[in-house]
Write a structure and sequence with these properties.
Blueprint (H helix, E strand, L loop, with lengths): L5 E3 L2 E3 L3 E3 L8 H10 L3 E3 L3 E2 L12 E8 L2 E8 L8 H14 L4 E6 L6 H11 L3 E4 L7 H4 L4 H15 L4 E4 L7 H10 L4 E4 L3 E3 L2 E2 L4 E2 L6 E4 L4 H11 L7 E4 L5 H10 L3 E4 L1 H6 L3 H16 L27 E5 L19 E2 L6 E2 L9 H6 L3 E5 L1
Parallel strand pairs: 3-4, 3-17, 4-8, 5-8, 8-9, 9-10, 10-11, 11-16, 16-17
Antiparallel strand pairs: 1-2, 6-7, 7-15, 12-15, 13-14, 18-21, 19-20
Helix pairs in contact: 1-2, 2-3, 3-5, 7-8, 8-10
The structure holds flavin mononucleotide.
Length: 382
């Protein structure tokens, strides 16, 4: 799988898949399972300075399905907190992981005070961590509980850790802020060796029978495949403005998602939820299919595709507005399923007959009917 080699933190990774910080990397043994499944690096579950965050409430995990058929999403809503021990326990896990694994082991740090980051980071370095991911972005952490802006907290944390250690330091951003591009540029200036985009967002789900929040009745981390488009959007937007590598994370379920993140500008991809819901072995299939994709596309090295799509994002004024379209039905292919009827807000589909009749003068050319049909309707230029 040499084609999948990528470079990160001054090291060669055998592939771009990194086990993201989560319960799935909660100790050295879980990290070993991640390595055995094929991950090329692991980020240990975060240690948090705040004691309250070291003890998990119950229940703390829920797979929430919302929507109606054809318009649905799944979110993995969790309130899983930090590594459950203190910094000495954490350092023991780093050492055990370094003994057990032959891939890079990255520590993940979330402190509460302004001046404690350096001390915690120094301990992780001493224990042998290959790098440190600074995580002021925890979706149940202080930055969402209190009225504070993300960057001042994140910038301070990064600078403190940067000064304290000689190993590579990255920062895991949140996307719950006004402008991730400016923040990414500031963080690179503060010394980030990489930026992880993004931590899970802070969310809320309400039970309408009890009229209360679900699970532990508080704000939760949430994410799912639906998050990818916004993560990709920000990665592609940040990519031209920063030169440190971007580590993408959020919603990956298959090799296509990995490829999309790379094309958007990420140098590697972190995965957690898929492992929770489908097991560590789901990673093997992604790696095999990734290699097959490269073969098919004739891509010699994975790093050749990083940012390719980001460079093709058009500015608003360059979008093609020169042609008008209308929907056209091929009645030989139409099976009369009527899926197209409700999606036309322009009243351009006459639903009075067995098969749709397009009122061309009303058709706006939006293309939604052709999308839901995917068989008999094509869009034609007027
Ligand atoms: C249950 C759970 C616990 C997590 N715990 C942490 C954590 O301790 N530190 C951290 O930086 N990210 C944590 N994450 C976020 C993941 O590292 C990952 O960035 C995020 O879930 C997006 O990737 P995914 O969609 O593949 O899960 C956690 C995610 C989940 C689902």
């Amino acid at each position: 799988m040499d084609k999948l080699v990528t470079h990160f933190m001054g090291m060669e990774l055998k592939n771009p898949l990194i086990a993201a910080s989560a319960g799935t990397t909660k100790d050295a043994l879980h990290c070993k399972r991640a390595q055995d499944a094929g991950f090329s690096a692991v980020i240990l579950k975060s240690i948090q300075e705040e004691m309250v965050n070291r003890y998990n409430p119950f229940p703390r995990m829920s797979v929430i399905r919302s929507g109606v058929p054809g318009y649905q999403s799944t979110t993995f809503m969790t309130y899983e907190q930090a590594f459950e021990g203190d910094i000495e326990d954490y350092c023991s896990e780093i050492k055990r992981a370094k003994d057990l694994l032959d891939i890079p082991v990255i520590a993940s740090l979330n402190c509460a005070g302004e001046d404690t980051w350096a001390w915690y980071a120094g301990k992780c370095e001493e224990a042998g961590a290959d790098g440190i991911e600074v995580v002021p972005s925890c979706p149940v952490g202080a930055f969402v509980r209190e009225a504070v802006e993300f960057y001042p907290v994140a910038g301070n944390a990064l600078r403190e850790v940067r000064k304290a250690v000689g190993i590579p330091v990255g920062l895991k951003m949140t996307q719950q802020m006004s402008n991730p591009i400016v923040c990414a540029m500031d963080l690179e200036r503060d010394g980030a060796d990489w930026l992880t985009m993004f931590n899970r967002s802070s969310g809320l789900q309400i039970d309408i029978e009890t009229m209360e929040p679900v699970m532990h009745k508080g704000f939760c981390g949430h994410g799912g495949p639906w998050v990818m488009q916004s993560v990709m959007r920000w990665i592609a937007a940040c990519y031209p403005h920063i030169s440190c590598p971007i580590s993408a994370t959020g919603g990956v379920t298959n090799y296509e998602d990995v490829v999309r993140y790379l094309l958007a500008g990420a140098g590697n991809v972190q995965i957690a939820t898929l492992v929770y819901l489908k097991g560590y072995d789901s990673i093997r299939a992604i790696l095999e299919q990734l290699e097959a994709y490269m073969e098919r596309q004739g891509v010699a090295a994975l790093e050749d595709i990083v940012g390719v799509a980001a460079k093709k994002v058009l500015p608003l004024e360059k979008a093609d507005r020169s042609k008008r379209y209308y929907a056209d039905v091929d009645y030989e292919k139409c099976v009369g399923c009527k899926k197209c009827y409700p999606v036309c807000i322009y009243d351009a589909i006459d639903g009075g007959s067995e098969k749709p009749v397009i009122r061309q003068e009303k058709c706006d050319g939006c293309g939604l009917c052709a999308q839901v049909c995917n068989r008999a309707i094509t869009m034609r230029v007027r």
